[in-house]
Amino acid sequence: MGADFWRTSAGIRQKFLGRKMLRINALGGLTVFGDAGPVSGAAAQPRRLAILALLARAGDRGMTRDKVIALLWPDSDDERARTTLSKTLYSVRRDLGSEDVIVGTKDLRLNDDVITSDLVEFERAVAEGQHERAASLYRGPFLDGFRLPGASDFDRWIDTERGSLRHDYESVLETLAKRAADGDDQLGAVRWWRMLAALDPLNARYALGLMRAMDTAGDRAGAIQHARIYETLVQEELDLPPDREVVALARHLRETPAVVQRATIDATDTTSPNTSAPPTSVPAAAEPSAEATPLVAAPVNSPATIITPSPTRARVRWRSRRFVAAVAAVAAVLLGAVALVRSRSGPSRDGPPLVALGRIADYRADAQSELARPLTDMLATSLGRISGARVVSTARMYELLSQAGSGDTSTAALVAAARRAGAQELVDGALYAADGGRLRLDLRLIDLESGAMRVSSSVIGSSLIELADSGTARLASVWGADLPTGSIADVTTHSVPAYRLYEQGLRAYYRRDLQGARGFFDAALAEDSTFAMAAYYRALADRGDKRRAIAMLTRAARLATHATDRERLTIMATLATQRDERALRALAETLVVRYPAEVEGYVFAGNALVTGGDFSEALPYLERAVAMDSLAFTGERARCAACEAIVLIVSAYQHMDSLAAAEREARRWIRLQPQSPEAWHVLAEILSQRGRLSDAIAALRKEGEIDPSTLAIEPTAVASYRIYAGDYGPAERLLQGQLEGVVPSQQTEAHWFLALSYRQQARFNEALAHARRFRALASVPTRNGFAPPSAALEAQVLLDMGRFRESAALFDSIPPGYNLDEAPTHIARYSAWAMAHAADALAAAGDTGGLAARADSVRKLGVNVLAKRDRELHHHIRGLLLAARGRDDEAEAEFRQAIYSVNMGYTRTNFELGKLYLRQKRPRDAIAILQPSLRGSLEASNLYITRTELHELLAQAWEASGGPGARDSATTHWAQVSSAWRNADPAFIPRLRQAEAHLAALANVRPNARPSTQ
């Protein structure tokens, strides 16, 4: 129903249910919630959300319109800005379903009868002394992650307000910490001081407060450990000596023995539900020694030794999680890296936690080679083999780190990346040299939400592979999961040097050093030619050579049986994408279901659905990828999954013939990544399709400003837009200039577009000459001397000229010339495509005898092809056959099945279906199917039928329809035909005269008085 009904019903529900309908959460992000959950769509546009954030922060005070304008539209003139604000306020009220959500005229404020916010509740709780409630409401920094490009004043306002709210939050936590200590709630004091230390790990006062609270609670070793962490962070981050009081307290704790009351510890059962045992007095634990005593034997499938802490330190009752937090000294360094924020978009706590790998520090005194980084990747890969485990891959972590732009791989950066990945637990550790040339790995499993250290264990082994296997076994036991079979080496490589080279290649790849990455991956494959993931990333680093990349991906796929399940699926999905294989859809769905924290699965799924013709179904997957990878827009990356996703979103809307939505998404991309030349080029293409020639050219100019290397192709691009708009003279002058240049690629492109321009004008002899020149310049070697793919344009011009059998023969000669090293599905696609064009030529010649067999062949070729357009081409051929036999109803059904996009598909199908409708005297149906075909692509959907012929058929349809506006529409289309064909080849002069006659009749003038078409 309409918006008025929604507003009325919303008001009734507010009145009778007695509860607020809307809520803004601005702490830890920015989300607006309605009854059905977070609002989306137009209501979630950035500036509309920004207005709500401004007013939520203003509270009852409200904010003047002038202040809102100054923050959100600083560069607009007053009148325009006020109009824009009024329109935006109207849109907010409409989209949120309440006219009363924002009230006031000069001073705007939120109506607290309709909408509430966590900001208001936080401030109220602070003012009323409800400190625990205030602490629970503060889920993270104010507007965390929210940006508004081009509004620097708004960004500065956010920083100011964020600092003020954080100061209030710190005061709340300190009050709670001191109150807990005064009330003899030592565990509570530890909890609150830890949260303060997490907010500001370099603050000496917070470090002292936490150390004293931990010592009082009986965890002296944890207090000493935190002092060491604080000292390390101050030195690394500030390059300053640590605070004297912290150093003095740590020395005092080391030198002074103490016996304190400790919380109950169960030495035998880590899962005991018993909480009734009285506290036991035990000596405070000393600082852990460098060497621990082995207490648990190694698992059967591991040659390493597992070492666990003593029972009085590790076997804590799971129901006493607060005490676990109290004794988890290392949690402070993890939480000191970032604010204590629960991710808005992170996965649910239901099911197994999502785990990320943090930093493994290498403390070997005589380290000759880097082992910690490859060990980290081994652990991440190995943990992913545990049944039911969910682990963020190393590649995803590197990708998230690269998005930060600083190259920072510190503990803080790793924890921040883990949180952005949605991880709930983090594994980190330290690597030491052990006796007998062996290695010791100290592992810690940290709950990222509470800061509790769930596990602190050590394993010893003679190699990285043994350490990874034993560490996996230890964590599998913690999670209560079965051990994975075999060793990590079985699904990666038995060669440690190969693994080290591979890990170095990964880092180079995500630093965008593709040449260096290729060198490392080649070296890794030289060490172990069966290393699947080295082959996979070698293929990704070969972005400029698709054929070579596919060959390397094919090699990786052959080796994928020796990779983990996630890696195997990723390799196979990437190969299926490159080969256009239909199997991509099932592979992508499996990746999304099994590994929802990995962004690749969502991009694969979106790509499969868009290419498969399910455009609207693709959008949720692609939007999820953009949300997961939004920081990728901050700069150039080795791979920007979010960029790939937003390109596919634009393409989906284009294929749905929703060009306004496609333009909106292209502009969103530009807002997110204003210096992306690709984004401006995509916008230019869409503006051209929308008939906005000057705007399209302006977008191209912007692309050239950002990337001067694109200026060389700008004249050709402008010419193509002018051809699309029917502005042939200026287009041809630009292209002739390109022909006179010295750059071969520009000359080749100029011949291509000149052929297209002359085709639109029915100057086919000139078009044929340029098509043949293009074929000669663009040809690649083919098998047995058959025609190259570049001959397709020549074959099409021959069809346009009425030389149907020559056209069909040339189209049919193209498939046998494809090189055998092409992917089978590519050969199938191209063959089906050429055979369908030949069928058009044969049908035009009246030769329908072989069309049925040809349709069967095309259907078989398309069985494994991902692209729906190519899979359904056989329906187009059957439609040609049935139409020739006068079986119009059956022909219509076949043509309908052949259409996968009404504007971006094979628009010759639209043309044939339009002719069929006119023959059936159904002009309105003809108009409906023909009009979208004029919003296609000049070089794709509009390549195989000229736009002028589409105008001609539409003019006939509008004249036959006789409805309102039909005369004007018919006149417009006949004028396009008359203008385009004014210099047509002699064979087209009768059709030109017919167009002029129709124009004259519609204008009620004599046929020999040509109306102006300018």
Question: What key attributes describe this structure?
Answer:
1014 residues; alpha+beta; Arc Repressor Mutant, subunit A; Rossmann fold; Serine Threonine Protein Phosphatase 5, Tetratricopeptide repeat; globular
Q: How does this structure look, described?
A:
By secondary structure, this protein is an alpha+beta fold. Among the domains are: 3-165, Winged helix-like DNA-binding domain superfamily/Winged helix DNA-binding domain (Arc Repressor Mutant, subunit A); 353-489, TolB, N-terminal domain (Rossmann fold, 3-Layer(aba) Sandwich); 492-579, Serine Threonine Protein Phosphatase 5, Tetratricopeptide repeat; 580-671, Alpha Horseshoe (Serine Threonine Protein Phosphatase 5, Tetratricopeptide repeat); 779-900, Tetratricopeptide repeat domain (Serine Threonine Protein Phosphatase 5, Tetratricopeptide repeat), CATH 1.25.40.10; 935-1014, no CATH class. It contains 46 helices and 15 strands. The strands form 4 sheets. Strands 10-15-14-13-11-12 form a 6-stranded mixed β-sheet, sandwiched between helices. Strands 3-2-1-7 form a 4-stranded mixed β-sheet. A 3-stranded antiparallel β-sheet has the order 4-6-5. α30 packs antiparallel against α31 (714-724). The longest helix has 31 residues, at 152-182. 50% of the residues are buried. The model is unreliable at 1-20, 259-350 and 1005-1014 (pLDDT under 50).
Label the overall shape.
globular
Mean pLDDT: 81
**Tell me about the biggest sheet?**
6 strands, mixed
Rg measurement, Å: 34 Å
Q: What structural class results from the helix and strand content?
A: alpha+beta
Low-confidence stretches: 1-20, 259-350, 1005-1014
The H-level CATH homologous superfamily of the domain at 3-165, spelled out, is: Winged helix-like DNA-binding domain superfamily/Winged helix DNA-binding domain
Strands across the major sheet, in which order? 10-15-14-13-11-12
Strand tally: 15
**End-to-end span in angstroms?**
45 Å
Helix content: 55-70%
Strand proportion? 5-15%
CATH C-level category of the domain at 3-165: Mainly Alpha
Question: Helix count?
Answer: 46
Named CATH topology of the domain at 3-165: Arc Repressor Mutant, subunit A
What is the CATH architecture annotation of the domain at 3-165?
A: Orthogonal Bundle
